[in-house]
Design goal:
Domain Tetrapyrrole biosynthesis uroporphyrinogen III synthase: 18-248
GO molecular function, one term: uroporphyrinogen-III synthase activity
Family: Belongs to the uroporphyrinogen-III synthase family.
Number of domains: 2
Largest sheet: 6 strands, mixed
Pathway: Porphyrin-containing compound metabolism; protoporphyrin-IX biosynthesis; coproporphyrinogen-III from 5-aminolevulinate: step 3/4
CATH topology of the largest domain: Rossmann fold
CATH architecture of the largest domain: 3-Layer(aba) Sandwich
Catalytic activity: hydroxymethylbilane = uroporphyrinogen III + H2O
Helix content: 40-55%
Number of strands: 11
């Protein structure tokens, strides 16, 4: 098995993952196929502003990612120098929870660090079993799954959503992939379904997808693994979640 590894995370979020994977003895190649951009349209920003000004109406604030924390806390800081005391904060994963706590927001619930860090794990929290007549504000990006919002609504909540950022294919993705391909075969890692889609798109544009389908691929969770199977990848290793520890453990299992 190759000891070369593609790290496809957004460049701004790759440092800790790079260090964790390099510590396992991999030669880590930075191949970012996803970038995070804040929304910039005036209509979009006005919609966000309206929800933020009404933040004291919400019983729960749910953050789905570290990106949601970064963008959401910036908006809250602009309009709420003192946050409402009754609002409770939830995070969809351990890293998101840490980001909230570093911003000074107390987290009352998050999935266990050794569990899947996804909507299903968050919805399993006892705090969310019955939300009758409670208002929930979701801090998230554009697009993505609707399962979390749909289920919260089905449990009685009044759910509003803030689309704070968008996930895009970086301008330099093609050149990054071309350079990595020139280095030879490697272990591929992706941290989300969007990253997998962008990776496949970029490889296909360079007529390299078919060859890379035989390379080892490490993904976070069964949902992304199922997507990888539909794309034709043959050697998929599933990490418990997208944390560095879980992905590193999955990488270590490749050599066993």
């Amino acid at each position: 098995m190759s000891r070369r590894l593609w790290l496809t995370r957004p460049a701004a979020q790759a440092a800790e993952s790079r260090a964790a994977f390099a510590a396992l003895g991999f030669e880590v190649l930075d191949v970012p196929v996803l970038a995070i951009e804040p929304v910039t349209g005036e209509a979009e920003r006005q919609a966000i502003r309206t929800r933020i000004l009404d933040f004291d109406r919400y019983h729960w604030a749910v953050f789905v990612s570290q990106n949601a924390v970064r963008e959401g806390v910036a908006w809250l800081s602009d309009y709420w120098p003192q946050l409402p005391l009754h609002t409770r904060y939830l995070a969809i994963g351990a890293a998101t929870g840490r980001a909230l706590e570093q911003a000074g927001l107390p987290v009352v619930g998050r999935p266990a660090i050794d569990s899947a860090m996804n909507s299903e794990a968050l919805l399993a929290l006892p705090e969310l079993a019955d939300l009758t007549d409670q208002a929930v504000l979701l801090f998230r990006g554009e697009g993505g799954r609707t399962h979390l919002a749909d289920t919260l609504s089905a449990r009685g909540a009044r759910v509003d959503q803030l689309a704070l950022y968008r996930r895009v294919l970086p301008d330099q993705a093609a050149s990054s992939v071309a350079g990595a391909l020139a280095a030879g075969d490697a272990v591929l890692t992706v941290h989300s379904g969007e990253s997998l889609d962008n990776l496949c798109q970029t490889l296909a544009n360079q007529q390299a997808l078919e060859a890379c389908l035989t390379w080892p691929l490490v993904v976070p969770g069964e949902r992304v693994a199922a997507l990888a199977e539909t794309r034709g990848f043959r050697h998929i290793t599933v990490a418990v979640n997208a944390s560095d520890n879980a992905m590193a453990e999955a990488l270590q299992s490749l050599g066993r």
